[in-house]
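User: Hi! I have a protein structure encoded as tokens and I'd like to know what sequence might fold into it. I'm fairly new to this, so please keep things simple.
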């Protein structure tokens, strides 16, 4: 296989990992107003991702770095054309990270409530805008002969792009609520299962519409791997329904696992729908589009990157797996209550 095509799928793998891992982070953050009845329950929810949220975010940094090195033309067009939404995502991630670190620094309900709002906003904005961005990349955007984006922010806010944003928002929300149910006990866990049941039904409907639209578009534009998009979409649909059924039966682990593989299958469906383009042009698909071949770096660069990935990627995966194993236990309400009493004395 040509190295450019290999790196197209490696970058796809990195974004799959990011959406699965930071996706449930976003969902946990968005669940605060629904599940956090008091400060103890809110701390219980936030502590489920306390040891891992920053590690999850490194996936998007690595994905961006690999995109820059492997596909500089794609990186340049994407980050210049999608500058404002990507800036909003960055600011939201900063807001969320600051809130995690500072909400407990002062014993004030007003202080904590303000940072809790920032966590919700900092989780919802990326969850929405990532879907808008990816959907527009797959659908195509106006590119001129120099592969420069000629649209505006309003160009990205088209029906398909907005539906993609709502789909990722709901998927991440439901995925995160599954995680809260899995990682907490008592009333928070019970409330999370009920919330996931309601949110899951809406997610199933919206995701089905989005994936069907994606399939129709892929075949309409005669994308090379449109048939794999159909397969991945079908798998995603089955897994999403399975996650909802598992949750309704009180099987939190299975629900979260099925939810994670739902996101994997859905992102792969979009990635295969994109092939062989990296940014299709709605002005002239044949001439103005960025493809895997015309957007990639030299073979020498990709060869060096391949050897580096072969060495370091398994180490990163092992380290992240070990981290999740260390922090695998549920966050008990009684533990937080005892810690609060100890802090007061």
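Assistant: Happy to help. Inverse folding works backwards from shape to sequence: for each of the 345 positions I chose a residue that suits the local structure. Here it is:
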């Amino acid at each position: 296989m040509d190295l450019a095509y290999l790196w197209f799928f490696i970058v796809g793998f990195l974004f799959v990992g990011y959406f699965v891992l930071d996706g449930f982070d976003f969902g946990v953050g968005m669940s605060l107003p629904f599940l956090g009845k008091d400060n103890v329950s809110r701390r219980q929810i936030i502590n489920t991702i306390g040891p891992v949220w920053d590690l999850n975010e490194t996936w998007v940094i690595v994905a961006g770095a690999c995109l820059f090195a492997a596909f500089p033309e794609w990186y340049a067009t994407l980050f210049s054309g999608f500058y404002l939404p990507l800036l909003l995502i960055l600011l939201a991630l900063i807001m969320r990270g600051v809130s995690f670190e500072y909400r407990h620094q002062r014993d004030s309900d007003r202080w904590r409530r303000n940072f809790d709002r920032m966590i919700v906003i900092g989780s919802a904005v990326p969850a929405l805008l990532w879907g808008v961005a990816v959907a527009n990349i797959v659908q195509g955007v106006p590119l001129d002969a120099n592969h420069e984006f000629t649209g505006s922010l309003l160009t990205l806010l088209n029906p398909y792009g907005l539906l993609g944003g709502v789909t990722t928002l709901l998927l991440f929300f439901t995925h995160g609520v599954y995680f809260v149910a899995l990682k907490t006990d008592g009333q928070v866990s019970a409330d999370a299962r009920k919330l996931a049941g309601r949110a899951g039904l809406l997610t199933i409907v919206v995701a089905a519409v989005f994936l069907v639209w994606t399939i129709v578009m892929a075949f309409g534009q005669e994308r090379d791997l449109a048939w794999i998009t159909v397969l991945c979409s079908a798998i995603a649909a089955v897994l999403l329904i399975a996650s909802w059924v598992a949750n309704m039966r009180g099987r939190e682990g299975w629900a979260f696992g099925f939810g994670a593989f739902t996101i994997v299958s859905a992102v792969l469906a979009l990635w295969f729908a994109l092939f062989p383009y990296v940014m299709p042009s709605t002005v002239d698909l044949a001439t103005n589009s960025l493809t895997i071949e015309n957007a990639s770096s030299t073979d020498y660069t990709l060869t060096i990157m391949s050897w580096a990935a072969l060495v370091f990627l398994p180490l990163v995966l092992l380290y992240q797996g070990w981290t999740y194993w260390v922090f695998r236990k549920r966050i008990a309400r009684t533990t937080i209550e005892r810690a609060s009493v100890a802090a007061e004395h």
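A useful reference point when you look it over: DSSP finds 15 helices and two strands in the chain. Feel free to ask if any position seems puzzling.
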